[in-house]
Amino acid sequence: MLRHEFQPGKLIAGLFLTVTGIAYAGDAGDAWDTPWFAVIPLVAGGLCLAGMAGLLAGAIRRHRGRSGTPDRADAPNGTDPIAPTAPNAPADGTPDSPTAPPRHR
């Protein structure tokens, strides 16, 4: 399974929208009575919390990015510091000999 970055804003928004759906599903199934206006504070409050969580997570991600991995623009000769390189490859990215086949990255 491929790893992806954690996005707490989407999690919070999904939880609040799921709770809203469950509230109306319970009302439709006669398990309880949900007023029609209950969706407004649930959805609006959930989206506000999700937005704040997303902004906070983005700020943390940007702050860690400055001190963490090197930026692609700072790499010498326009090379990508994050891309994998072939073993025993020259540092400047040139082929070993003029007749060597091109390397695929």
Listing every helix as H and every strand as E from the N terminus to the C terminus, the arrangement reads HH
Low-confidence stretches: none
Helix content: 40-55%
The tally of beta strands, per DSSP, is: 0
The description of the largest β-sheet is: none
Overall pLDDT level: 80
Look at the helices and sheets and give the structural class. mainly alpha
Seen as an oligomer or otherwise, the chain set is single chain
Strand content: under 5%
Shape: elongated
Computed Rg? 25 Å
Number of helices: 2
What is the first-to-last residue Cα distance?
22 Å
Q: Could you please describe the fold and organization of this structure?
A:
The structure is a single chain. It is built from 2 helices and no strands. Helices cover 48% and strands 0% of the residues. The longest helix is centred in the middle third of the chain and has 29 residues, at 39-67. It starts with 7 loop residues before the first helix and ends in a 38-residue tail after the last helix. With 105 residues, the protein is an all-alpha fold. It has helices at 8-28, 39-67. It has a domain at 8-69.
